[in-house]
Amino acid sequence: MNIKNEARNRLRATRRAMGPARRASEMALLAGHLLPWLGQNAPRRTLTCFLSYGTEPPTGALLADLHAAGYTIYVPICEPLRRLSWSRWFPGVAMARSAVGPIDEPVGERFGPELMNEVDVILVPAQAVDENGDRLGQGGGYYDRFIQSLADPEHRPMLLSIAFEHEFVAAGSFPVEPFDQRVEAVALPSGVRNLTKWPRERTLELM
């Protein structure tokens, strides 16, 4: 087992040990900081948010709050070859089981990278985020591929990860590879932390 997978397994075990009530409580605190931050950083009030699965920070209540606050929300759709497209989410949207994973996804029009011209912030799932903005994901590379595919990094949406408090760690806590894409901020139960933006080039092609 490689070092990254060992780190993922430790973090997943800690999330399971937290239990549903604590995960929901920490997520409620996180959302209380995230919504004001979005008010300042999402002027077009358009963003993406992931549909949580398993022991991930639960996003159901956050999605409902964002919709009530007037945000236009898109969620990721897992496509073959570990690619992402996007579909509009709103309360009551029709859902169907994903063709490539054990999660339900909205039924409706799919959008590609061109959608990002309208999006202010991409909420990126993470197992952990370090002080440099490096992110440890689930290992599928979906988000890294998608972010790398965006033609103009200087004008793409801001990248913000959602994590539990213990998952914000010191730099060097997990391995980082050239194709790993950094986030510019992380939302935690204690608040939103803005991180260094793109301090080094990431150009290695994901296979």
Detailed description of the structure:
- With 207 residues, the protein is an alpha/beta fold.
- The protein has 3 helices and 12 strands.
- The protein has helices spanning 3-41, 60-68, 142-149; strands at residues 46-48, 72-79, 83-89, 95-97, 104-106, 121-125, 128-130, 135-136, 158-162, 168-169, 185-188, 191-194.
- Strands 3-2-1-6-9-11-12 form a 7-stranded mixed β-sheet. Strands 8-7-10 form a 3-stranded mixed β-sheet. A two-stranded antiparallel sheet has the order 4-5.
- β11 (185-188) and β12 form a beta hairpin.
- The radius of gyration is 16 Å and the shape is globular.
- Mean pLDDT is 89; it is low at 198-207.
Give me the secondary-structure topology.
Blueprint: H1 3-41, E1 46-48, H2 60-68, E2 72-79, E3 83-89, E4 95-97, E5 104-106, E6 121-125, E7 128-130, E8 135-136, H3 142-149, E9 158-162, E10 168-169, E11 185-188, E12 191-194
Parallel strand pairs: 1-2, 1-6, 6-9, 7-10, 9-11
Antiparallel strand pairs: 2-3, 4-5, 7-8, 11-12
Summarize the structure.
The chain is 27% helix and 24% strand. The chain is an alpha/beta fold and 207 residues long. The protein has a seven-stranded mixed β-sheet with strand order 3-2-1-6-9-11-12.
Which descriptors apply to this entry?
single chain, 207 residues, alpha/beta, seven-stranded mixed β-sheet, three-stranded mixed β-sheet, 3 helices, globular, disordered C terminus
